[in-house]
Amino acid sequence: MTEIPVISSRILHGVPYFVRQELGERALRRANRAAGFDLELLEDQNCFIPHAAVVSFLNAAARAAGEPNIGILMVPAMNAANYGSYGRYLLGAETLGLAIERAISALPYHSTGDGMSVAIVGNEVRYSYAFALAGCEGYDAIAVAAAGVLLSVMRAYLPAYWTPLRVELDIAKPRQTAALETVFQCPVVFGAPVVTVVIERHHLAANPRRDARSIVTIEDVMRARRGGAPRDMLNVVVEQIRTQVRAGSISLESTARAMDISIRTLQRELNRTGTDFRSMANAIRIQRAIELLRHTNGTITSVSAEMGYSSPANFARAFRKVTGYGPREFRTSNRPHGTAEHHS
User: pTM to 2 decimals?
Assistant: First the structure.
C-alpha cells in the first residue's frame, strides 16, 4: 500500500490560536476545512496527522487572509518545547549536542518520511531537517517555520543574545529577503538541499538555560506515541479515524482530503486489505465509546454526541450490535462496585 507521511499533531500547538489572532476566524475555519478536521481540538493530543493536512491548513489560512508571509509570522511562536513527550525528551538533555542527538534518534516517534541530521564541518555545526513533502505547493511557509523549530532547540541552551551563523532554506530566493534575515537575525541562504541552521561548534557543549522540570526517557516517548508513527496506509487511516472521533466528526471525504488522495483511491486501497471505511469507522467509534463508558461519568447522550451519532437511539443500536449490550447495561456491568451511575 502507498505510504502516507504523518507527523505528530503536537507540531500545531498554538498554531490555530495564532491563525485566529493574526489572520482572523474566517481564515481558521477555511484552514480547518482544508485540513479535514478541527486542528484546535487536536493540538494537545497524541495523534498523528498527514503532512499534507499540515500543508493544506497553512496554505488555506494564508490564502483566506491574503498573507503570503505566514511562515515568517510563525517563526517566533515555533518551539520544540510544545511537542509533548518528544519535546520534553530532547530538551531534557544535559547539553545542546545531546539534545540534537535525541531529536534525531526519537524522530520515528514523531513523524514518518522526515529526515534529521547533524554534521560537523570544521568549526561549524550543521543541524538539518528534511520535510517529507519538501517542494510541494505551499512548502515555503513550512520550510521557514521548520527553521524556527530548529532554532528553538538551540535557544533553549544558548544565551538570549545568541544568533546563528546562518540559516539555509531549501526554497527559491524570494524577491524580498530582508524580513527573513530579520526574523532569523542572521544571513539566509536559499536553494539549499534541506533546511539547515549553522552554528559554531563549541556551542554543542552548552548546558540548558533552565533546569528540566521532569525526566523523560525514550521509553516515555514510545509509550506516549503508541510505539511510533503509523507507516502503512491502513494504520494511517485508522489513526485519521481516531483523530476525527476526537474532533467529533467522521467522514470518508475528510479522511481522503487530509491524506491528499482521492476518495476512490482510498476506497480501493482499503478494499485490498479486506475492509472498508464504514466498517473501520464503526469499529473505532464503538471502541472509543467503550472507553468513555468504562472510564468517565459522561451521560449516554453526551457519549453518543461525542461519537458523532445523530441520536442516542442510533448509538444504542450500533453499540448493541457490536457488543451485545446496550450502553447503560454495559456501563452498569463494567462500573467498579459502589460508583453511582449517571443516566442520560
Answer: 0.82
